Amino acid sequence: MQGNKSKDTKPELLVRERLREAGLGGYRLQWKAPGRPDVAWPGKKVCLLINGCFWHRCPKCNPPAPKKNLEYWVPKFQRNVERDQRNLALLQEQGWRVHVIWECELKKKTIDATFESLIPVLREELDK
Ligand SMILES: [Zn+2]
User: Fold this and answer.
1) More exposed terminus of the chain, fewer Cβ within 10 Å: N or C?
2) What is the distance in A from the centroid of ligand 1 to the CA of 74?
3) Domains of the chain
4) pLDDT at res. 9
5) What are the CA-CA distances from residue 92 to residues 86, 89, 120 (Å)?
6) How many whole angstroms from 100 Cα to the centroid of ligand 1?
7) Distance from the CA of 80 to the center of ligand 1, in angstroms?
């Protein structure tokens, strides 16, 4: 079956669905911390960053860069990656525990393994 392209497949929704299933609610979206973490439990200072592989230059799946307009894309990617690193460092300095979830870790073939390892860690950190 071909995956449909409805908004239900959006990475954020997939993540939130898994969190709900695991009973890990109580999070806030786009919390006002460096980089606006997609999902955050501010009281526990735990957050999830959900990154699109293309824009954030995923080290796991290495998405191919566009072949044209490199003078546009290369600095743009560079800025994105640097911004991510800066935000991650700021969050950690402020005492946040940060989990980065890449889009490619949420595919049909990978999502179960992703949450099998993530959920127990979150449970521990969130005390749930
Ligand atoms: Zn990826």
Assistant:
1) N
2) 18
3) 7-126 (3.40.960.10)
4) 59
5) 10, 5, 21
6) 11
7) 15
Per-residue model confidence (pLDDT) at position 76:
95
The CB-based long-range contact list for 59-65 (8 Å cut-off, 24+ gap) reads 60/102, 60/104, 60/105, 61/102, 61/104
Instruction: State yes or no: pLDDT of 5 exceeds 60.
Output: no
Tokens of 87: 């935000």
Contact by Cβ (8 Å): 30, 39: no
**Average pLDDT value for residue range 80-91:** 97
Q: Which residue has the tokens 């439990």?
A: 41
